[in-house]
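Input/output pair, single chain:
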Amino acid sequence: MFFVGLLCTLTNKLTKKVKIQSSHFNFAKTSNFRLSWTEVDFQLSNYWEMQELLRGINIFLIGMMGTGKTTVGKLLAQELGYRFFDTDVLIERVTQEPIDKIFASIGEENFRQIESQILIEVAACTKSVIATGGGVILSSQNWSHLRHGLIIWLDASVELLTARLANDQTRPLLKKTDLTSKLNSLLEQRRSLYTQGDLRIFINENDTPEMLVSRILEKIPSKIVSSLKISKNQN
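Output:
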């Protein structure tokens, strides 16, 4: 898995070279409008306050398939100046096979072992947003790595997931089965684990990825501050 560590190093160097560009921290995006120095200072202050709060900790996105972890994760990483990883994409790069073929050839148990190894690798990075597979929460070993970062649960109703996944033929756990029944079964099995995340972001039918990212950014500060207070009281 050496390539993941190498990827951390390369993307870290690239991230340092990229200028701060963000839709949430909007630094004069339009040519017809010029922000005052006061407004620029305020938005820069917001950005750096978030960086100071996070201190480079990773953000892990968990949740059912179809919740948009990859899309939301990419946008969130862009907002924070973080790198982005998708564990499913990394698994496909390592094995040089699509996820559904991996399931078919080696089975779910062996797939989960590869998934856990990939998680170990990316969790060793810093300043990363990591979109995880829907079943990553099934392993207690995985939780030991997830808890080193901020865990955000993207939650959606089975009805919404069914609509999104109706024509998706790439999900091995959904093949040759009634879609709604299978999603209900999976969510019932996993819900108590998902609830162990630090933040829950519920997805409504009309929510855009940008709206979800904005909601996440609004909730992060209070969560971190409350966690620091709890930690301080326990010590």
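The longest strand covers residues 150-156. Residues 10-44 have pLDDT under 50 and may be disordered.
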